[in-house]
Amino acid sequence: MIDFVQLQEIVKKQLEQDRAIRSVDASGPTLEAAVNEAAALLDTSIRRLEYEIIERGSSGFMGAGKKDWVIRAYEHVSTKKKKHAEELLVDEEFDSAAVVVNEDGDAYVQCRSDGVYLKVIPPQGNGRRIYSAYAMQALHDRNISDFDNAMVETLVESADGMYVKVAEFKHNPMQDSMAQVEVDDAEMKVFVTVIPPGEGGADLNFDAYKSLCAQNRVYHGVKDDFLVKFADRPTYREKVEIAEGTRPMNGKDAYIHHYFETDQTKIKLKEGTNGRVNFKELNIIQNVVQNQPLAKKMPAEDGVDGKTVTGKILPARSGNDIPLPVGTNVHVNEDEDTILADINGQVILAGGKINVEPVLTVEGDVNLKTGNIIFLGTVIVTGNIEDGFSVKAAGNIEVKGTVSKAELDAEGDIIIYQGINGKSGGKIRAGRSLWSRFIENANVEVGNMVVVTDGIINSQVDAIKSIVCMGKRANIMGGRLRAGEEINAKVLGNSTSGTETICEVGFDPHSKIELERLMTIKASAEDELETMRLDLQTLINTKKQRKTLPEEKELFLQELMERRQVLTEELKKAIDGIQKVQEFMNQIQVRGRVSASTKVWPGVIVWIREIKEVVRTEYKAVTFVLENGLVRVTKYEEPDELAKRGLDGYNSN
Q1: Where are the beta strands (DSSP E) in 411-448?
Q2: What's the Cα-to-Cα distance from 422 to each of 139, 407, 428, 456, rounded to whole Å?
Q3: Helices (H), 30-145
Q4: How far apart are CA 319 and CA 116, in angstroms?
Q5: Burial letters for 403-442: b for 16+ Cβ neighbours within 10 Å, e otherwise?
Q6: Which residue stretches of 266-332 are H helix?
Q7: 504 within 8 A of 497, measured Cβ to Cβ
Q8: Are 600 and 619 in contact (CB under 8 A)?
Q9: For 556-605, how does the pLDDT look when each residue is reduced to its tens digit (9 = 90+)?
């Protein structure tokens, strides 16, 4: 056996050995930087360093709380002597990805009812082994002095991580360590609070903790690996989590994986060096061939049941199934999970259904030779659309030439490569967006946005979202333009007096048109009722005085009374409609802005919601916005990025 004096001699010898080791403290913003600095200070290779982390670094938050890494690095003298020969054999570079936190070996002591046990664990990575003195000191820290010295040295040498008896122990059961186990109300977490042993008391080992779990009906989710380490070095008088239940995992719902593009924002508009959009490169129609797969249903997944720490099953919900979105001109495969095309054409996702629409190509112009066109699909016109003709399509309309005083109506997008000259007539309506080189003297109404490269002149243009002119001649001169979110151009108005340029944003154009229509009906009904009231009053007074009226006047009186009833009902409907539209418009939270990247001429009228602003002076590169009930002039803002992107998954060559 070894006494305390002998232990001091062993520690003294160990200190003399440690003096043969050079060490430096180094720091850096990263662990790699600190290791590099230590290697430089010791004049050795990084691969030949042994180090321990003194203080972990932190990148902090927004530059605050930043801390450097601090390490203590060592180099043995014997390593120094071999350094030159080793560098002739290999010159390895430092690989930051291979850096791991090295852990030294350690020794743990447990006092049990039948004796004192010692466990020695080996180092990890480049960590250092412990010496016998370290293990002996661990025993002395527990007031154990009469132990088997040879056994301790054997355990340090083998470092097999197993507890072995090294001394006798006078056990006092009244002083044993105690633990209180607490299971939360949901039976999903288990905590233990440990009271340290007194003099002569035994420690709680791993088996004791497992037994405590069993006594408290904790069978699932016990953290065995943690308990092994906790038994070696417990934390006293603190609540520590030792078990956790498994929460149920609901299965994923079935979903549709599309083999075609469904998001219009992912197809970008291409603009040439001259500032013009090359519509030929839009690739806005997605053509498919017969039996081509269009979409596949990914099946719903089963849920994974959870379990409480006491073993109760927590059922999980399985994913929900969904039907295949089968539209027109498509069919389902034998496995009933994939949608295939019936015909050659273009694939469209409309109303949540996958459809394949055929494409009608008109070679040349739409004129007397072709007549008016009505088609349940997409129409491509390689020429022009002449005055007085109409093209109506359930899909898109593409015109390679110009559109004159004609009518175009598409449920999808309208693409006009040259432009529109409506000659103060005709009508262009698109369910989604309109793309054109220019718009002049035309009436346009779209469900999303209008994008023009060479400007808009003396036209009525309504867009639910935005009106954007982008190009070298992207001017808006004259006319009335209404958009829900923004109007953006290079120049607004012109230098000479002429047709007013009115820009209105911040509301739903359709709602405002409906409001104006209802206001007109209301005003007309009120005027007619006022005139009718005077006529009725005259006839009624005459009848009271004379007791009767001539036949023709009696008939006229009845007609007036019937007409008054009709007008009263119309007026009531108009007032109710006005109230509903106004409530809807008040609920719409749209910022609304009018922008000009170069210039705004005096005379331009800007409406943002219900606030009007007449431009009195010339502005350059500005955006008009509504702030605190007033139209303010701010720095120019670029148009919405979505306005620069392409269409809803279509392709045209």
Answers
A1: 414-416, 419-421, 427-430, 434-436, 439-440, 443-446
A2: 100, 9, 9, 12
A3: 31-42, 77-89, 132-141
A4: 56
A5: bbbbbbbbbbbbbbbbbbbbeeebbbbbbbbbbbbbbbbb
A6: none
A7: no
A8: yes
A9: 888 888 888 888 998 898 898 888 777 766 665 567 899 999 999 999 99
d(CA 86, CA 45): 10
CA distance from start to end of the chain: 95
Amino acid identity of residue 314, one-letter, is L
pLDDT band (50, 70, 90) for residue 81: very low
In contact, 71 and 54? CB cutoff 8 Å: yes
The amino acid occupying position 57 is G
Does the pLDDT at position 85 exceed 50?
Answer: no
* pLDDT for res 10: 57
Quick one: pLDDT at residue 51?
A: 73
Torsion angle in degrees (nearest 10) through CA of 629, 631, 633, 635: 70
What does the chain come to in residues?
653
Model confidence pLDDT, tens digit, residues 607-616: 998 889 999 9
Please tell me the predicted confidence (pLDDT) of residue 20.
52
Own/partner long-range contacts of 7-16 (Cβ < 8 Å, ≥24 apart)? 7/133, 7/136, 7/137, 7/140, 10/132, 10/133, 10/136, 11/133, 11/137, 14/131, 14/133
Q: Which residue has the tokens 């056990």?
A: 171
User: Residue 399 corresponds to which tokens in the numbers above?
Assistant: 């015109």
Confidence of residue 23 (pLDDT cuts 50, 70, 90): confident
pLDDT at 275 over 70: no
Q: What does the pLDDT look like over 152-207, one tens digit per residue? A: 999 999 999 999 999 999 999 999 999 999 999 999 999 999 999 999 999 999 99
The pLDDT value recorded for residue 268 is 52
Tell me the residue type at 4: F
- In degrees to the nearest 10, what's the CA dihedral of 31, 34, 38, 40? 120
**What's the pLDDT band for 281 if we cut at 50, 70, 90?**
very low
Beta partners for residue 420, in sequence order: 403, 439
Q: Which amino acid is at 607?
A: W
Q: What angle do CA 193, 198, 204 make, to 5 degrees?
A: 50
Cα gap 175→171, rounded to integer Å? 8
Would you tell me how many other CB atoms lie within 10 Å of the CB of residue 157? Answer: 11
Q: Identify the bridge partners of residue 439 per DSSP, sorted by sequence position.
A: 420, 456
- Three-state SS for 496-548 is CCCCCEEEEECCCHHHHHHHHHHHHHHHHHHHHHHHHHHHHHHHHHHHHHHCC
Tokens for 123, please give them.
Answer: 């180092």
Count CB-CB contacts under 10 A for residue 221. 21
C-alpha neighbours within 13 Å on the C-beta side of residue 255: 5
DSSP 8-state secondary structure symbol assigned to residue 171 = -
Q: What is the pLDDT of residue 380?
A: 92
